[in-house]
Design a protein that fits this description.
The chain is about 20% helix and about 30% strand. It has 3 helices and 16 strands. It is globular, with a radius of gyration of 25 Å.
């Protein structure tokens, strides 16, 4: 009789342990799923831009001084302290690699090219693309916007925004796109020289304001310089990038919340 009681007791204990283990495993899987959910973002659906601020890891996306913005020309203020951009791009800028990160096509650069802001050196790190443009001017959204991202020794960020219109074929874009297409999450070595100057407008006049990254984590304190003049590329060249990036990979206009846009 005692033997059967011990056997029954052992079975009950095993069942309890098994249930507990299953519960813990399920809880772990749920936590992993939740962590994956909050660390991921997209351009549409429940992880789209309107929900970025709700994802814990992207809390900065709900702050007050975000980007992009709509630049209204009549509201732009002239600032006599602003100076022409000091752009030091060589004719042989070394592109290290190109990446399809699932959100955009990004070209990473070797050290050597930079801009100077108030005697502070900002190294050119990478360029990437948004289709259509993120910033708008008088409510007009351009077919594409190129962001040229620079970082100084203190990890502060300055971005040159270049509006892209559809028009004539661009030889610089032919070079960049010669390394495409790329599969999702694919990285391709380039290690060739490129004249970055050919991808910025001849007229360097700009609009300036302080905002944020336009993608998570939406970190603020970014110095934005949006060129007034656009560059032109062919419709075919626009479509090459469109096919590789998410449709409408842009964030909508963010409120100014008291900020001003300035120009020289």
């Amino acid at each position: 009789m005692k033997k059967y009681l011990w056997l029954t007791f052992a079975i009950i204990i095993n069942v309890i342990i098994s249930c507990k283990n299953q519960h813990e495993q399920k809880k772990t899987e749920q936590n992993e799923h939740q962590e994956k959910h909050i660390s991921t973002w997209e351009y549409e659906g429940e992880m789209g831009p309107e929900h970025w601020a709700d994802l814990k890891i992207h809390a900065d996306c709900g702050e007050r001084f975000q980007s992009p913005i709509n630049i209204i020309k009549s509201d732009v203020i002239r600032d006599s302290t602003l100076k022409p951009l000091e752009i030091y791009y060589g004719k042989l800028t070394q592109i290290h690699e190109v990446i399809n990160n699932g959100h955009t096509i990004q070209y990473n650069f070797e050290k050597g090219d930079y801009i100077m802001l108030n005697e502070d050196k900002y190294e050119l790190k990478q360029i990437h693309f948004h289709e259509a443009s993120e910033h708008t001017i008088n409510g007009i959204r351009y077919p594409m916007e190129m962001h040229m991202v620079h970082v100084n020794k203190d990890k502060k960020v300055a971005v040159l925004g270049v509006m892209v219109e559809e028009g004539t074929n661009s030889e610089p874009f032919d070079f960049l796109e010669s390394y495409l297409p790329l599969a999702l999450n694919e990285t391709k070595k380039v290690d060739k020289a490129f004249n970055v100057n050919l991808n910025i407008p001849k007229n360097k006049a700009y609009y300036h304001y302080t905002g944020s990254f336009t993608t998570p984590p939406c970190t603020e304190g970014v110095k934005w310089f949006i060129f007034k003049e656009s560059i032109r590329v062919s419709v075919t060249q626009v479509k090459v990038l469109q096919k590789l990036m998410p449709m409408n990979n842009f964030r909508n206009e963010q409120p100014l919340n008291g900020r001003t846009v300035t120009t020289m």
